[in-house]
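Support request from a user on the community tier.

User writes: "When I paste my structure tokens into the form, the page sometimes reloads and wipes my input. The last time it worked, I copied everything first. Here is what I submitted, just in case something in the input itself triggers the reload:"
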């Protein structure tokens, strides 16, 4: 019975070994491609958060007699005023005073954090907001029309899942 499992010819034996090697190499290549796809998705997500924070920092202006204010373009205002709270932000001045915030719960939480530096500081939050969603975000310092500001921006991690799903379709 054991002799039935062993190839009888040298050519068949070599063909089986070559097929096994090819299968292993193909599996390794697919694994590397999937890994790179996820890394690209994460990088795109991080760059998107940095761009959102930069846009918020650019939207801070100082009036002649009053404190700094946030003047969002309509498309940004719509994104941050969504009742689903998929994107949230807090902008603080150099002393840590809140200039603007999209949602009170996020403002209360971020107000207790130290001010961010010039390099992005990424974070994850669990079960926040009315929907008890998980968020991925960053805090970073930017120069604005009203001086240095600390911008903290985050979005629901389900958005990251969507990016990964789209990349999985194209991989």
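"...and here is what came back when it finally went through:"
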């Amino acid at each position: 019975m054991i002799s039935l499992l062993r190839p009888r010819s040298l050519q068949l034996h070599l063909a089986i070994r070559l097929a096994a090697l090819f299968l292993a190499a193909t599996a390794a290549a697919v694994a590397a491609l999937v890994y790179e796809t996820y890394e690209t998705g994460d990088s795109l997500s991080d760059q998107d958060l940095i761009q959102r924070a930069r846009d918020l920092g650019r939207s801070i202006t100082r009036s002649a007699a009053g404190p700094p204010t946030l003047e969002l373009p309509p498309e940004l205002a719509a994104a941050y005023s969504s009742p689903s709270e998929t994107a949230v932000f807090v902008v603080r001045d150099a002393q840590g005073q809140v200039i603007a915030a999209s949602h009170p719960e996020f403002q209360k939480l971020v107000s207790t954090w130290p001010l961010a530096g010039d390099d992005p500081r990424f974070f994850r939050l669990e079960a926040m907001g009315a929907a008890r969603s998980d968020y991925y975000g960053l805090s970073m310092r930017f120069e604005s029309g009203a001086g240095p500001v600390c911008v903290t921006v985050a979005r629901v991690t389900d958005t990251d899942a969507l990016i990964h799903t789209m990349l999985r379709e194209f991989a």
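Agent notes: The reload is a front-end session timeout and is unrelated to the input. The CA atoms of residues 61 and 84 lie 28 Å apart. The helical segments are 2-5, 10-58, 74-80, 104-110, 157-170. Escalated to web team.
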